[in-house]
Amino acid sequence: MRTMVAWVPDWPALVRQAEHAEANRGGSTADAEALAVLDKGVVLACTPAARAQGVRRGMRRRDAQSRCPDLVVCDHRPEVDARTFEQVLTTLEELSPGVAPLRPGLCALSVPERYYGGEAEAAAVMAEQLVGLGVWDVRFGIADGVFVAELAARQAPAQDCLIVAPGGNADFLRELPVEVLEVPTPADATTPGLDLVTVLRRLGIRRVGEFAALPAADVVARFGAHGALLHRWAQGEEVRPISRRTPPPELVVTVAFEPALERSEAVVFSARQSVESFVRGLDRAGLVCSTLRIEVDAEVAGEPRVSSRVWRHPRWFGSGDVLDRLRWQLSADPPGGPVVAVRCVPVEVEPLGDHAESLFGGGPDDQVERSVARVQALVGPEGVRTVGVQGGRAPADRRLSAPWGERPVVQRPVDRPWPGSVPAPAPATVFTEPAPAQVVGAEGLPVSVSGRGGLSGRPARFRAAADLAWQPVAAWAGPWPVDEHWWDEAAARRVARFQVVGVDGSAWLMVVENGRWWTEARYD
Q1: 3-state secondary structure of 217
Q2: Main-chain phi, psi angles of 90, to 5 degrees
Q3: How many secondary structure helices (H) and strands (E) does the chain include?
Q4: Number of other CB atoms surrounding residue 164 within 10 Å
Q5: Low-confidence residues of the chain: pLDDT under 70
Q6: What UniProt keywords are attached to this protein's entry (predicted)?
Q7: Which residues pair with 261 in a beta bridge?
Q8: In 381-506, which ranges are E strands?
């Protein structure tokens, strides 16, 4: 995902400097020019005037004051920094809704390139707006993810943007010093008390590319989960999702019923006008809602009861979509009493420009969506499903299914290595439950696989299911051994998969586990 990071260097120092300038209005502000903000006796941020005299982030107070005798020292007040940075976030949200604050002075957002004509153009517009706000030194970085975008922003000139080309994260990182990977080491890391970057330098590793070239297994064994995370960052992978700001409270719509309504049809009908107003409000804010939480308040035996469910949409919710979800929720989880209120809470909102259709259109055909919606209204939301592919070793593990209209949640990314998985092409038919099968060698003895992947004999004859006849093996491939969850005795599983072709031309994916054979899928 293309991500933009906006960085205002030394934001805490700029805030304190503005406070000093306000306090000295009408007089000299020279005393406030060389200023540093300290946290626990260490310099957290400083102004350009202080930096020009040798003050640096991470210095102790005594060292900083020895470099700059007239240094103005201020305590760190994170709540003030966050409150003042809110104005920057609000300004950026007016241009690209869905800003994710990382810390005061740093935030991430989606790149509204389609609206402004390009990534560089979008950054230029945002820089102009922030300069008008009085933020002179703002820098932008754009890349495939937050981590690299932040590094790009730190290398960009003031009021400018450094763009890392799509797919270019690894190339951008390769020659950077390993110090860019400096993050606090967790207390439960494999090397507690030691900074990972310090250890890398002791090992002679100076560049991010050198660290990225190390085998992942060796990094995990030496540095644990913390090191594995930094190793993936070094390879250009983005593993830190953007946590967008909670939508403003006015986007939440509550429909109260007085008197309370007993029938679901009456609830949906009475909520229609408010739901339409809810969608129009999002549109006016330049937003669309892709994830929605519907809360239903009811009275059951005099006690309040709240039914809540999160709904997802592959594109965004229109008013009809919201009403359909409300109807389905009332049907699947009856309130059990009169409904007194319904709330629509946008959980995830995205810029409308990110979903703008191109000249030739985009997204699923509207007529198809309407037709499927009518079918769902008859059979329920679970009756119509969409399928996809996710990562996994077994064919059944790779299946991904979700009700039509909801975004499938990928639990296992496809782009991860899956050792032991069967190579392409994938089987056309995957059985819900594996069928008992038999495979024997030329002597008629069952074929087995040792712990090292060795065969007791070559497959000669097989029966793919109990209701199918025995037949000779025309060709076979494998085994592909898999040793899963070996560290968990309850979940441990050791299997080996084979592709087997019969003389009748049928092809099967078979698996042997604990000496027993099963058929998992069929190739058409």
Answers
A1: helix
A2: -65, -40
A3: 15, 20
A4: 22
A5: 22-32, 183-194, 239-250, 314, 353-367, 369-370, 377, 405, 407-411, 413, 415-417
A6: DNA damage
A7: 339
A8: 385-389, 399-403, 429-440, 461-463, 471-484, 493-502
Specify which residues 345 forms β-bridges with. 293
Question: Are 378 and 327 spatial neighbours (Cβ–Cβ below 8 Å)?
Answer: no
Q: How far is residue 107's CA from residue 385's CA, in Å, rounded to a whole number?
A: 37
Q: Is 247 helix (H, G, I), strand (E, B) or coil?
A: coil
Q: Which residues pair with 351 in a beta bridge?
A: 287
CB 248 within 8 A of CB 349: no
The Cβ of residue 502 has, within 10 Å, a number of other Cβ atoms equal to 21
Q: Is the peptide bond before 259 cis (omega within 30 degrees of 0)?
A: yes
Query: Quick one: which of 286, 357, 253 has its CA closest to 315?
Result: 357
Whether the Cβ atoms of residue 429 and residue 441 lie closer than 8 Å to each other: no
Cα separation, 191 vs 196, whole angstroms? 8
Q: Tell me: the pLDDT tens digits for 205-263?
A: 999 999 999 998 888 888 888 788 888 888 888 766 666 665 555 678 899 998 889 89
d(CA 207, CA 202): 13
Helix (H, G, I), strand (E, B) or coil at 466: coil
> Which residues contact residue 175 at a Cβ distance below 8 angstroms, ignoring those fewer than 6 apart?
207, 208, 209
Q: In the chain, list all ranges with CATH 3.30.1490.100.
A: 254-353
The conformation of residue 184, written as its DSSP 8-state character, comes to P
> What architecture does CATH give domain 254-353?
2-Layer Sandwich (3.30)
Tell me the two tokens of residue 481. Answer: 């051994």
- Measured CA to CA, the distance from residue 286 to residue 302 in angstroms comes to 41
Q: Which fold has domain 172-234?
A: DNA polymerase; domain 1 (1.10.150)
Q: DSSP secondary structure string, 254-302?
A: EEEEEEEE--HHHHHHHHHHHHHHHHHHHHHTTEEEEEEEEEEEEEETT
Query: What are the structure tokens assigned to 103, written together?
Result: 């810390």
Are 248 and 260 in contact, with CB atoms under 8 Å apart?
no
Please say whether the beta carbons of 152 and 166 come within 8 A: no
Give CA–CA dist 395/6, Å, rounded: 43
End-to-end Cα, the chain, rounded Å: 36
**φ, ψ (nearest 5 deg) of residue 343:** -120, 135
Give the C-alpha distances (Å, rounded to integers) separating 422 from 400, 504, 509.
Answer: 18, 22, 9
| Displacement of CA 17 from its chain's centroid (Å) | 37
How many whole angstroms separate alpha carbon 296 and alpha carbon 306?
Answer: 6
Q: Which residue has the tokens 């797919």?
A: 167
> Could you tell me which residues are beta bridge partners of residue 5?
108, 141
> Which residue is associated with the tokens 């975004």?
407
Which amino acid, one-letter code, is at 333? D
Query: SS3 for 231?
Result: helix
pLDDT of 366 reads 59
